[in-house]
Amino acid sequence: MEPLQIYERLKERFGERVLETVEKKPDPFAVVDPGALVEICRYLCDGPELAMDCLSNETGVDYKDHIEVVYHLFSYRHRHGAVLKVKLPRENPQVATVEGVWKSANWMEREIFDLVGVNFEGHSDLRRILMPEDWPGHPLRKDFVEPQEYHGIATVRESPIVRLDRQKKK
Amino acid sequence: MQSWIDSLIAAGDFGKNPPRDLVYALFIFGLSAVVFLGVAFPFAGIVSWVERRVWARIQSRVGPNRVGPNGSLQWLADGLKHVFKEDIIPDEADARLFKLAPYVVVLGFVLPWAVMPFSSALILADLNVGILYFTAITALTVVGVLMAGWASDNKWSLIGGIRSAAQIVSYEIPAGMSIFPVVLITGTLSMQGIIRAQAWEPYHWFLFSNPFCFVAAIVLYMSALAEGNRTPFDLPEAESELVAGFATEYSGMRYLLFFFAEWGNMFIAGALITTLYLGGWQAPRLSSSPVVMNVLELLSFNVKVLFLVFTSMWVRATLPRVRIDQMMSLCWKFFVPVAFINLIGTALWVAIWPGGNPVAGYVMFALGLAIAVLFIRRVMYYLKRSRMEMYLHPTI
Amino acid sequence: MSGTAEQTLRAEEMTLNMGPQHPSTHGVLRFVIRADGEVLREAVPDVGYLHRSIEKIAEKVGYHGFMPYTDRVDYVCAMFTNQGWGMACEKLAGIEVPRRGEYCRVIAAEFNRIASHLLTVGVLGMDIGAMTPFLHALREREMINDLIEELCGARLTFNYMRIGGVAWDLPPGWREKALAYLEHLDPILDEYNALISYNKICIQRLANVAPISREDAINYNLAGPNLRACGVKWDVRKDLPYSVYPDFEFDVPIGHGQWGTLGDSMDRYMMRIYEMKESAKILRQALTRMPDGPVLAKVVRNFRPLAGECQVRVESARGDQGWYVVSDGSGYPWRVHVRTGSFAAMGIIQKLSRGLMIADLVVLIASLDVIAPEIDR
């Protein structure tokens, strides 16, 4: 099944709660209501015609005015894929976890929490995964400013060329 | 020996009326120092160099070849390097046990040299319980390893130590049971006595004296591998699982002592099997001069032992390591029953043919030869199939 | 009496810290192990020691400039990350890669796959205590590294591909050398199998260890050889064909569980051996059928794809690599995300580790073929 057909089917089933479908090339996607996300995902995963048994990718994107969480779904039975998105406010973004539907969401949601700062309600183990536990901020936010030091360790260093220049001037 | 020292004392070489015990003690210490530094350590060191070269050949590498001709002094350089290194003792370690452990291990490796039958004359002490002494002393290693594992205050070390204890204690049983058949046949525990009961011809070795002995020798060899912590049974120091096992926290000289003991134990295990099953130092009587004969015997003994050492290197370079439960079940479910069957079988054999059965020796020897030929043919087959020119010109 | 026995023989759980400097955690991984003697209650992976924020770097260096950084995502098989990034950009901008360029990509990538699998099987051998197979495998890998060095000048981080093709054509005489190497590889693989794969101890150590069911594999999003070992016949090269893979005949080996259970460590291990043979098959066809022509399409230096987003999937040596790129029409990507096989494989270890032994955990990590840079990126 083509992605657009899948989105049509979703619209039939969930009506208003599928907010929009975008046919933009190369990858079309559907934006869904964050409140209905888990329900839609379960429908996609369990239904025999769609059988999206694999969440192949989940990631977050910061668009400056809002944050999107992107779900790349895939069906090994029917060999088709779909892209779902939820749009969240930038302040305190929250969305329900899909860990109950696909186990692979566990780690990917931890990564999004860590790097983009989306809170996943109901996640079993929402800790930072890549950054240190006490890291300030979320690095993949567009307004993230890297701290100058971390526990007394400088995170930036002077370019060796600049340093050489300075030494020459002295 | 004693009379010679007495004559020296009588000649006044130690002054007038020296304390006799002190002079004896002096000689004993001097002699053991010579054995320790002049025989045991160089043997272990050279075995380590040989092992690294053999490994390198098997793994298509070059191996150490810089220090001395063909790198043959590498062991000396490494040993010196380790001696000069800092001896680090972890803060939380039980310092006394930690320091003591390597020496206990080394003790288990040095003491067996006292009954090592190099030739008909070259033996320090031909104890009448030689073989018993031998097995008892080599088991000291486990105490040292367990001490090291416990005292390091490192969980990986502890697991290594416990593994080692479990392993060595378990494999002592099949190993001991595989020594008894020979004792049954010869009726003696003395190393020289056992060797004298054999002859230089292979079909007079105990290896071929009856089918049970043949199996017992193999069980003994494998148990010796396990007791010496050699692959496929090197679990106590399994570097991919336990970092370095019981030796994780050791450095410098103490670390070296552990590994000297390991390499030396290869030689000791080989000597045990050679003595029991491969005719020991027995050599053909080519000369009537005792000096020449002793040299021949020394050669014969060492060739056999080094062959066994080489085999264990070969095994180590070829096989992966077994898991702890597999190793234990191999011991208790297979080796122990087989060893008991060997013991009973040999007992029956001795009851039926008290003087031994020479025909069985010839038949078993022929069988062993056939197995060896089949094995060599298999190796040759693989050598031919792998394409040598690719190794010699890697860029083609 | 049982009560007193329990009191006197109270056994405590031991918390062990495996890594980040443990010899058999490939790269820098860390596991916090709760163990009862040798048997694990659970091993909790702790990753992130190699996090370099490659995705953030992409937002700052632009499309062309990011190519060398992709090498660092997975430095054992960097050709695939190169290819994935290149393909994502081409898909965004609608660039057609010349056929010879695609052939060069396939050849480089498949050689890299063999090299990567050789390392995997070798390291697995070393993790179960056999040193020799590791060095034999590295010797073969070294020859591939020599070939690739001639091709692109680097042995590990290749930076060979460009958006729109590859940087350089094959050097003169390279094709013959590559074909000669393939001639040499097949007997070597047989020898390797005889040395370790079919060794009784090796089979005992690997078979029935940490089997993954088909459903779990899909649910946990395993990819590549790990997925195929569980009996799922799925290969991006075959099922979502990209590049010139439709031109070639090759099989997709899957696990059958003939050594123990379906999807156990032995299946995962053998999958790598089979795949090397398939890669050699592809390489032979590609090297003999190479068309003539340019290898690099004309791509403007100031590369600005239209606003949009896409995901491309590349069959890397560690499985299905998904490059998700969002473009806002400027010269810098808005967001790059790479979904890697190791990240998914790492996620399943906690579940599989329950009830294994310490030695099995080492086998599990090695057979899933996780490498740290790909997890942490």
The whole-number mean of residue pLDDT values of chain A reads 83
Output the CATH homologous superfamily of chain A. Answer: NADH:ubiquinone oxidoreductase Nqo5 subunit
Q: What about the largest sheet of chain A?
A: 5 strands, mixed
Secondary structure: helix percent of chain A: 25-40%
The number of E-state strands of chain B comes to 0
**Binned strand content of chain A:** 25-35%
Strand content of chain B: under 5%
Structurally, how many domains make up the residues of chain B?
A: 2
Helix content of chain B: 55-70%
State the assembly state of the protein chains. Answer: heterotrimer
* Total discrete domains of chain A: 1
Distance between the termini of chain A: 70 Å
Describe this entry's structure for a reader.
The complex is a heterotrimer of chains A (170), B (396) and C (377). The N and C termini of chain A lie far apart (70 Å). Chain A is built from four helices and nine strands; from the N terminus they run H-E-E-H-E-E-E-E-H-E-E-E-H. In chain A, the strands form three sheets. Chain A has a five-stranded mixed beta sheet. Chain A has a two-stranded parallel ribbon with strand order 6-7. A two-stranded antiparallel sheet of chain A has the order 8-9. With 170 residues, chain A is of the alpha/beta class. In chain A, strand 8 and strand 9 form a beta hairpin. With 396 residues, chain B is an all-alpha fold. Chain B folds into two domains: 1-81, no CATH class; 85-356, no CATH class. Chain B is built from 15 helices and no strands. Chain B has helices at 2-10, 20-58, 74-84, 95-110, 130-138, 140-151, 155-186, 191-196, 211-227, 239-242, 252-277, 290-318, 324-352, 358-385, 388-392. In chain B, helix 2 (20-58) crosses helix 12 and helix 7 (155-186) runs parallel beside helix 13 (324-352). The radius of gyration of chain B is 23 Å and the shape is globular. Chain C folds into two domains: 1-51, no CATH class; 52-368, Cytochrome-c3 Hydrogenase, chain B (Orthogonal Bundle). In chain C, helix 5 (99-127) runs antiparallel to helix 14 (358-368) and helix 7 packs antiparallel against helix 12. Chain C contains 15 helices and eight strands. In chain C, the strands form three sheets. Chain C has a three-stranded antiparallel beta sheet with strand order 1-2-3. In chain C, strands 6-7-8 form a three-stranded antiparallel beta sheet. Chain C is of the alpha+beta class and 377 residues long. The model of chain C has no long low-confidence stretch (mean pLDDT 85). Chains in contact: A-C, B-C.
